[in-house]
Design the sequence.
């Protein structure tokens, strides 16, 4: 799992395990912990599905998640040209998230997940433009957005799917 925030999460988990072990709640040896940490994964959280170009799935469905994603992208692809595919629910901080994404996105594909709370692709495209972003395509479904992104992918170093765990789930299926 990439990103400084994942290191912090791992340290927190190890500290919690250490407390549980010292209080006799669990029994585990260091080797089991090492194996567990090595095998740990969290699909949809900076999940690199492909390289050349990178295809990355990250739910990033709130401003904290958006900031963590953008920070990781800046660290790992400092000069990369990035296409964002995004869907955001109406009850999320969409404008703030799009402003954060726009800090690294060269272009966007706007779409809507099947969730009834999702902004429409058109609404999202307007909000992207208001946030200073460029919309390369609008797609009515995550499947169509995936196809549009793959058609454009040759122009980019990475295609990042972010903004909605619902969209990530649909695209990963």
Sequence:
């Amino acid at each position: 799992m990439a990103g400084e925030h994942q290191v912090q999460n791992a340290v927190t988990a190890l500290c919690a395990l250490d407390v549980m072990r010292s209080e006799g709640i669990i029994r585990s040896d260091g080797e089991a912990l090492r194996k567990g940490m090595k095998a740990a994964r969290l699909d949809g959280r900076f999940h690199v599905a492909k390289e050349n170009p990178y295809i990355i799935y990250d739910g990033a469905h709130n401003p904290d998640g958006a900031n963590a994603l953008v920070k990781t992208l800046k660290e790992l692809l400092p000069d990369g040209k990035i296409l964002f595919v995004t869907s955001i629910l109406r009850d999320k901080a969409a404008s703030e998230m799009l402003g954060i994404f726009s800090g690294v996105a060269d272009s966007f594909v706007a779409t809507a997940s099947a969730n009834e709370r999702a902004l429409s692709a058109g609404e999202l495209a307007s909000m992207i433009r208001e946030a200073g972003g460029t919309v390369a395509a609008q797609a009515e479904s995550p499947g169509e957005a995936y196809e549009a992104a793959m058609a454009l992918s040759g122009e980019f170093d990475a295609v990042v799917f972010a903004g909605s765990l619902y969209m990530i789930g649909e695209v990963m299926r």
